[in-house]
Amino acid sequence: MQDIKNPVMSVGSEVYTADGKLIGQYYKENRSPVDLKHISPNLVHALVSTEDARFYSHNGVDFYSFFTSILSTAKGDRRGGSTITQQLAKNLFETRKRKSQGIIRHVPLIRTVVYKCKEWLTAFKIEHVYTKDQILTMYFNTVPFGNNSYGIKTASLKYFNKQPDQVTPAEAALLIGMLKATSSYNPIRNPERATDRRNVVLGQMEKYGYLKKDEYDANVKSPIKLDLSYVEEDSHGDSYLRRAVEKWLDKWCKDNGYDLYEDGLKIYTTIDSHLQQYAEEAVAEKMKMLQKRFYNLWGNKNPWRDSKGVEIKDFILKNEQKLPIYKLLDKKFGGDTVKISEYFKTKKRMTVFTWNGERDTTFSTIDSIKYYAKILNTGMMTIEPSTGKIKVWIGGIDHRFFNYDHVNQSRRQAGSTFKPFAYLTALDNGYTPCDKFTDQPVTIKYKDNGKDEVWQPNNADFHFSYQEMSLRWAMGKSVNSITAQLTEKVGWDKIVQYAHKVGIESPLKSVPSVSLGSNDVSVYEMVRAYSTFLNKGEKIDPLLVTKITDQDGNVLDEFKLKSEKVISEETAWLMLYMFRGGMEEPGGTSQALWEYPGLWKKDNQIGGKTGTSSDYVDGWYMGITKDLVTGIWVGCDDRSVHFTSSETGEGSHTALPIFGRFMEKVYADPKSGYTYGNFPKPWVKITKSYQCPSPHIAADTTATDSTSNPIDTTNVIPTPAPATENPESTPPNQK
């Protein structure tokens, strides 16, 4: 009786954006419960007239129907005699599985009698505890409809993209007709049989007075009109987000004893559906263009190359050996490489990703490896530092074909986006934005695992100007030689310490090149670290989920922002001022953003940092506005496949355009809540000198940014540096 009073259904959990849009589900059985008042009478009438015409007059077991069904079966007309309540007992309590163990199950005839007795007893108990309406509600929420659809709400959405209170008599008859055999009468696979079965159900509805003759005639003649768009929306490319939420909640579920796939949780994320849409649109638009550039660059040549540009001959073989099937084939063919090679050369039908939608084609495994190796991918995340809420999460270009999440799973060389941590270390240890260094060759001797090493970094353009530059100018223009000198002054161990302090969690090898981004980091931790500067020096634990409720809306837990003061407010503000140098200093590497006029209304201010790793393997852009921090990475999944020049592969030409287009869309939407404006004024008195305008340079077309190769060259639109700057004034109009 306790089981019957408190039945347990496996109910999938649902994930929502901050503005209430359903974006995903977790389920073993795809089920979404619904009250009877939200179920169309057409469905109730179809069910009762077809499955249990005497439903309202029996007490769980209809002996009259049972014995007549036996007689009919004996005459060759096989039909069931189970009532709706008995079917509920079977579906809800698995009377033929979980509670039916023992040796009797091996005796065919006796086994059936035992099963039936258990169903009868359970049905009587159900009728004792619940009303007829409650029994119908439980039945509609437990019955399977095929295609991993459990419950009437899931089925009506999946087959007709309608709520269950909106279905017509014909649609209700189709759904109820499927209950006899969900596979045989599936309208997707067997439309003719489904139509015949639907018409039988409509006939029963007329027979028992639920349909008039003219209504019956009209519904029987109507063709089946399926609307499968709900299924497509449910498999939208935000699956990266669903997986991220699952990972984020893994510990919470274990600590609190919940199962994400069975307990019907409602999970409310911090994601803004509008910003997420704008980001996806910007990624699609720009990545499509970048992919075309990549194809044009390489043509028919294979792009997998070593650091000297020589083609890697065993690239395909190594990728074959990484496939899970390789070990099986190796065992099957006894290590015969010829037979294994033949298997991988065999053409097969397959569906592949393209920027114009998925395409059916005939590829061998080798064709597939070659094809996908050339596809560019991306990772993008946007956070609101003041609240710690993650607003955008794009793990890649299409989760159906690329499961690897490039926001928090992938770690890639940060390139020059790591340089700000060297300048942060300097500013927090006595230096000012106005301190000057000379752009000249640098030689740094150090020990690596006890071995003497010498590091002599080049500038991106392999040129030293011997010009004296302020730290702000040097960071804005991304000058390697000055960053290296600064690294030697403050110490690479200390730079690693500060990077970890503000939010980088990946292990960092402490060598002089650390400040030029020689280590691998994720988009997630870079965005987190940069947000510390906009958040007054407070390091945050980014929030992806704000609230979890049960099915009835009862709050199970709420998540609040956790933060820790790691740098002073003065240092944090000075870093924001330094980031603006990418736009305001001569040759600043962010100046390609001038090409996006939608960013520069009302004297808007944007700061940021481009980055590109050696050989143009990884392109980065970290963008900062007064409200948001966005991180973007672009590259191929295999590091040996990449662009070949600064004009094609630097961060300002790959990742930066995505940021520019994204923010244009955000600013263009007055409902987004994010407006143009200046960076915050100093939160405290600024004691360090920072009013040191750089000399005006009429033109500078060599603005580059790299760890070792020419990277991030931008066509600079000459802009005057501010003549003066003080905490209370806004910078001059630079349009």
From TrEMBL:
Record field: compositional bias (Polar residues): 726-735
Catalytic activity: Preferential cleavage: (Ac)2-L-Lys-D-Ala-|-D-Ala. Also transpeptidation of peptidyl-alanyl moieties that are N-acyl substituents of D-alanine; [GlcNAc-(1->4)-Mur2Ac(oyl-L-Ala-gamma-D-Glu-L-Lys-D-Ala-D-Ala)](n)-di-trans,octa-cis-undecaprenyl diphosphate + beta-D-GlcNAc-(1->4)-Mur2Ac(oyl-L-Ala-gamma-D-Glu-L-Lys-D-Ala-D-Ala)-di-trans,octa-cis-undecaprenyl diphosphate = [GlcNAc-(1->4)-Mur2Ac(oyl-L-Ala-gamma-D-Glu-L-Lys-D-Ala-D-Ala)](n+1)-di-trans,octa-cis-undecaprenyl diphosphate + di-trans,octa-cis-undecaprenyl diphosphate + H(+)
Keywords from the UniProt entry: Carboxypeptidase, Cell membrane, Cell shape, Cell wall biogenesis/degradation, Glycosyltransferase, Hydrolase, Membrane, Multifunctional enzyme, Peptidoglycan synthesis, Protease, Transferase
Domain Glycosyl transferase family positions: 20-205
InterPro entries attached to this UniProt entry: Beta-lactam/transpept-like, Glyco_trans_51, Glycosyltr_51/Transpeptidase, Lysozyme-like_dom_sf, PBP_transglycosylase, PCN-bd_Tpept
Localization: Cell membrane
Pathway: Cell wall biogenesis; peptidoglycan biosynthesis
Entry keyword annotation includes Glycosyltransferase: yes
Family of the protein in this entry: In the N-terminal section; belongs to the glycosyltransferase 51 family. In the C-terminal section; belongs to the transpeptidase family.
UniProt-recorded name of the protein: Transglycosylase domain-containing protein
Originating species: Mucilaginibacter dorajii
